[in-house]
Amino acid sequence: MKRTLAAFGTVAVLTLSALATGVTTASAAMPVCTQGVGYVDAAGYATGVPVSDSGSNFCSLRSGNTGNGVRELQKTLNGCYFDGVTYLDEDGQFGPATTKALKRAQTMAGVTADGVYGPNTRDALKWYWSQNWQPRCLRLTQAPGPIR
After folding, report:
1. 53-72: b or e for each residue (b if 16 or more CB lie within 10 Å)?
2. Superfamily of domain 31-142
3. What share of the chain has pLDDT > 70, as a percent?
4. What residue spans define the domains of the chain?
5. How high does pLDDT run on average in the chain?
């Protein structure tokens, strides 16, 4: 009986600690977007979207991350959310300028402007699509399907 109560107490403490720090199992388990993948819609326009090593676009990016996933995000921030002042280096480095540009884009897209890229931001952003130097900005769900 004492062991059972001790086990329940440990679980309760861990659960309350996670709630107090804002850590949830889902966010802790979400992979980093380390790569980029190209999507082409039915009209022939192409865009690049951050994905994890496994190829899933259910991933996250934040300050300090590096790689092609960051580079794809930077291309969209420049192409669709350029503020007329600060053009991002598309260098794959998620630093202060990328954080600032992402917060601006998140505000414009109507999601929480926390500077962290994840599935909610992915779905809300308008992505930079191009075909033969003809650009457009559309959400992934607005592009003519099917997307391949």
Report:
1. eeeebebbbbeebebbbbbb
2. PGBD-like superfamily/PGBD (1.10.101.10)
3. 81
4. 1-30, 31-142
5. 85
Listed range (31-35, 122-126, 136-140, 142-146) with the worst mean pLDDT: 142-146
Q: Say which range, 1-10, 39-48, 99-108, 109-118, has the weakest mean pLDDT.
A: 1-10
Q: Which of 46, 54, 44 is nearest to 75 (CA)?
A: 46
User: How many other CB atoms are found less than 10 A from the CB of residue 109?
Assistant: 17
| Residue whose entry in the numeric block shows the structure tokens 């003809």 | 134
Whole-structure pTM value? 0.80
SS (H, E, C) 48-109: EEEECCCCCCCCEECCCCECHHHHHHHHHHHHHHCCCCCCCCCCCECCHHHHHHHHHHHHHH
Q: Which residues pair with 39 in a beta bridge?
A: 47
Say which amino acid occupies 115.
G
Half-sphere exposure of 130 (CA within 13 A, CB side): 10
> From CA 54, how far away is CA 114, in angstroms rounded?
25
Q: What is the pLDDT of residue 74?
A: 98
Q: Span 90-96, mean pLDDT?
A: 98
Contact yes or no for 61/117 (Cβ under 8 A): yes
